[in-house]
């Protein structure tokens, strides 16, 4: 992942930086359907100074990953316990809740139609992704890595990009997690849970892409 610049699109930033999506929502910046707009242009359309928005994003970037251990082995353990296990637990809760909300509110114009199906697809792909990390990539890293590690790292990065597209679909289906005034408790709980899940997944991918993977890419190149 590259650094945040005014030329980078808001869609890419939202998919890569934990907290950026919420920041954009707060400023009324569309990063889903309008996500191909450069940050500078999006800021100006929202009536913001581009450099001011960039500073807010830089602050988020500085805070990202602060709770992650610095050493490689504890970092891997942290990824498994803090993110892999949490994703599994939360998706197991969110999918039936999404199915319930879609069923009960199927006639509502703001109903998140297709959300459960998207979450099921993401769950299947994410489970496969995490198993490959736990059974193949992380053990290679725990043994110190090798030149062969570049291939699974590249595959994991590609899968991260695919998972980010699922998050964009969730953002679109839920209208940016916008609840109607009459939303019931289940609908509210669903969107609260989804906000946390998406922020967690973005943070998870960022730690791997910007902290863990580069350590072994550099080693493989030597």
Instruction: Pick out the low-confidence regions.
Output: none
Shape descriptor: globular
Q: Supply the number of helical segments.
A: 8
What is the average of the pLDDT values? 91
The number of strands is 0
Distance between the termini: 21 Å
* Largest sheet: number of strands, sense, barrel closure: none
Structural class: mainly alpha
Q: From the structure provided, what is the oligomeric state, counting identical versus distinct chains?
A: single chain
Order of helices and strands: HHHHHHHH
Main location: cytoplasm
GO molecular function: metal ion binding
Organism: Rhizobium giardinii
Subcellular location: Cytoplasm
Short description:
This protein is mainly alpha-helical and 222 residues long. It has eight helices and no strands. The chain has two domains: 54 residues, no CATH class; 150 residues.
What can you tell me about this protein's structure?
The chain has 222 residues and is mainly alpha-helical. The protein has 2 domains: 10-63, no CATH class; 72-221. It has helices at residues 10-16, 20-26, 39-45, 50-63, 72-104, 115-142, 150-173, 185-221. α5 (72-104) runs antiparallel to α8 (185-221). It is globular and about 55 Å long. The two termini are 21 Å apart.
């Amino acid at each position: 992942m590259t650094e945040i610049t005014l030329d980078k699109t808001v869609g890419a930033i939202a998919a890569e930086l934990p907290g950026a999506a919420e920041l954009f929502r707060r400023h009324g910046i569309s990063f889903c359907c309008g996500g191909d707009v450069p940050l500078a242009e999006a800021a100006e359309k929202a009536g913001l100074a581009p450099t001011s928005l960039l500073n807010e994003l830089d602050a988020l970037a500085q805070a990202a990953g602060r709770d992650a251990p610095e050493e490689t082995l504890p970092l891997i353990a942290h990824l498994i316990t803090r993110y892999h296990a949490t994703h599994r637990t939360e998706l197991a809760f969110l999918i039936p809740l999404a199915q319930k909300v879609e069923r009960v509110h199927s006639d509502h114009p703001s109903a998140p139609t297709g959300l459960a199906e998207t979450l099921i697809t993401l769950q299947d792909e994410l489970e496969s992704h995490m198993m490959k990390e736990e059974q193949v990539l992380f053990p290679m890293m725990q043994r110190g890595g090798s030149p062969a590690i570049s291939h699974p790292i590249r595959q994991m990065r590609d899968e991260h990009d695919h998972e980010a597209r699922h998050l964009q679909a969730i953002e679109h289906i839920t209208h940016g997690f916008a609840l109607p005034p009459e939303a019931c408790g289940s609908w509210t709980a669903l969107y609260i849970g989804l906000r946390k899940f998406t922020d967690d997944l973005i943070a998870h991918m960022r730690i791997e892409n910007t902290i863990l993977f580069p350590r072994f890419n550099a080693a493989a190149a030597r």
